[in-house]
Design goal:
197 residues; 5 helices; single chain; alpha+beta; 6-stranded antiparallel beta sheet; Phosphorylase Kinase, domain 1; Transferase(Phosphotransferase), domain 1
């Protein structure tokens, strides 16, 4: 898809893919201003009403979060071809594990990064959002050495009158999942805290 126009963006290259779709590095191409984004596009073959609603919910959750250690939402919607998409802040860097290994970070420096990630998670929780898939590959360290929490695709906003939420039917990462996630039970912010341990 390199070079293909997608709304206001031109696709530069693929940077990741999963069961539902692909994430591309894309560049804003409408002449208004220069901006690189991570463009998450759902494959048309899986874009049923449930997936479209899931993406709408993800966009709404991200639109409500504004924290220096959470990748920001820039745009989103459904393309002319019927493909749901989200344009996120593009974080050019290494995953938490790669960064710590490449720089042989001391325990002190690792803890400083970890505290920033904890602050981002606490901010999400104060805004009634549980991430549900916190893992090292969803934390990228940018060129300034700042961690960014990514991929709120499984995130769930708490209902105002209910502080529990059922685990999504969508996949999560078992190695970092809480016992209640694995058991299919109701989850809370403590599930994210378990994933941070």
């Amino acid at each position: 898809m390199t070079g293909i126009q997608f709304g206001n963006y031109r696709i530069v290259r693929e940077i990741g893919h999963g069961g539902m779709g692909t994430v591309f590095l894309a560049r804003r191409d409408d002449g208004e201003f220069d901006q690189d984004v991570a463009l998450k596009i759902v494959r048309q073959s899986v874009a049923d009403s449930r997936i479209i609603e899931h993406f709408r919910r993800e966009r709404q959750i991200l639109a409500g979060l504004n924290h220096p250690n959470i990748a920001a939402l820039h745009d989103g919607g459904i393309s002319d071809r019927g493909e749901p998409f989200i344009a996120m802040e593009y974080v050019d860097g290494l995953t938490l594990t790669e960064y710590a290994s490449a720089r042989a970070l001391s325990i002190h420096d690792r803890l400083l990064l970890f505290l920033k990630v904890c602050a981002a998670v606490a901010y999400a929780h104060r805004n009634l959002v549980v991430h549900r898939d916190i893992k090292p590959s969803n934390i990228v360290i940018n060129s300034d050495g700042e961690p960014k929490l990514l991929d709120f695709g499984l995130a769930k906003a708490f209902e105002i009158d209910n502080t529990n939420t059922q685990t999504a039917v969508l996949a999560f990462t078992p190695a970092y999942a809480s016992p209640e996630q694995i058991g299919g039970r109701a989850i809370t912010t403590s599930s994210d805290i378990y994933s941070l341990e």
